Amino acid sequence: MESVKIFLNESEMPRHWYNIQADLPKPMPPVIHPGTHQPIGPQDLAPLFPMGLIEQEMTQERYVEIPDEVVDIYRLWRPSPLVRARNWEKALGTPARIYYKWEGVSPAGSHKPNTAVAQAWYNKQEGVKRITTETGAGQWGSALALACNFFDIECKVFMVRVSFDQKPYRRLMMQSWGATCIPSPSDHTEAGRRILEESPDTPGSLGIAISEAVEEAAARDDTKYSLGSVLNHVMLHQTIIGLESLKQFEMAGDYPDIVIGCVGGGSNFAGFAFPFMRDKLVDGKDTRVVAVEPKACPTLTKGLYRYDFGDTACTTPLLRMYTLGHRFIPAPLHAGGLRYHGMAPSVSHLYHEGLIEAKAYHQNECFEAALGFARAEGHLVAPETSHAVRAAMEEALACKDRGEAKVIAFNASGHGHFDMGAYEKYFAGEIVDYAYPEQKVAEALADLPPID
Ligand SMILES: *Cc1c(COP(=O)(O)O)cnc(C)c1O
């Protein structure tokens, strides 16, 4: 009997992360200081991040060793399985072979602990006592709470107030792992107090929560800040996903023709796809690599490739990326993790160079695909992940039409057990499909910093 799950032994887990910077045909544009418009240096980031992570942010080294203590924690749920979706292939009637990498096995239920654990470790090495961060629906906050718990670091999470009130379960997870989670805007920071004074009933936003977390980290010597996506070091840590997958494909005697991941800030996609991109860039493999986003937040497919701020309050350095503008206000989309206005500069660069593809889907078609997947394979994926499921399904159906037995691989970034409210709305026919208006993209241009 041919196996369905391809497991690596713990001893075969990769011991290095892969840094795509080393293999890019053209170097990425520099990160720029908003005041001087000059490339930033390590010291500019030092108030917010430990030097170990700043070095990783800027390194050109191809492989970076994973510290032993990080490996030990990874081993609690890694290596994660690569699964051949045989039942789903049958249900779709496709000759394609479909594989998914299942990141829902982590304690927080997504890929996010892969970087949270690494970030907590590098902070610990430099004596950092506290870490602040922001979270929307709570995926990132819970992953960082888990990681800080392992290294005895205090963790303070500013959670967008509307989610804090409406989605108590991830907040309770953070509390279970010993983190403090407070609704943002809060009276703990200047930024929060200012906003509360202007609009006491504000639901909050990710942009505001970032401003609060950054302000507190910058103001205190014992505190650093942590970001769950977008930055190079985050993409680097996530490559454990793709590196394991490469080994698993070798064990299966197969190799993907099409590699797919959903994109919010870009980290699960990059983590899965970049090791395959290495084979494409260096060994000339002819792999199609596809990033999938919501039509309500179409950063790659409708955004502009420009320098922009990472947050609403314009406090971060400027990143060259696809952006919908830092003032972007997302529609009430269920895939909370895909609502960011920007995109990882590395993913943006690859897209701009024509080395990866991008697709956008509406919410309903993604939930429909996720249910088909759940009925065939059992797993109820996160609303974010459902975008990758939809793209894999469409590729599989195209194979059926053309009678082609392609190999399709997607990253199943997380489970949806805390998102059943979204599934409930889908069953009730209450999910609304929004497409972000072109007009808004044009308006955002006016707000971008005038740098080319
Ligand atoms: C946060 C999240 C995402 C989106 O973030 P990326 O940085 O683009 O990966 C996707 N899937 C799940 C399950 C998430 O929690």
Explained architecture:
The chain is α/β, with parallel strands linked by helices and 452 residues long. It is built from 19 helices and 15 strands. The strands form four sheets. The protein has a seven-stranded mixed sheet with strand order 1-4-5-15-10-11-14, sandwiched between helices. A four-stranded parallel sheet has the order 8-7-6-9, with helices on both faces. The chain has a two-stranded antiparallel ribbon with strand order 2-3. Strand 10 (258-262), helix 13 and strand 11 form a beta-alpha-beta unit. The longest helix has 18 residues, at 385-402. It is globular, with a radius of gyration of 21 Å. The structure holds pyridoxal-5'-phosphate (PLP). Pyridoxal-5'-phosphate binds next to helix 13.
Can you name the CATH architecture of the domain at 4-10 and 67-109 and 233-445? Answer: 3-Layer(aba) Sandwich
Please give the radius of gyration in angstroms: 21 Å
Spatial order of the strands forming the largest sheet: 1-4-5-15-10-11-14
Say how many strands there are. Answer: 15
Strand proportion: 15-25%
Distance between the termini: 57 Å
Which hetero ligands occur in this complex? pyridoxal-5'-phosphate
Instruction: Work out the oligomeric state of the chains in this entry.
Output: single chain
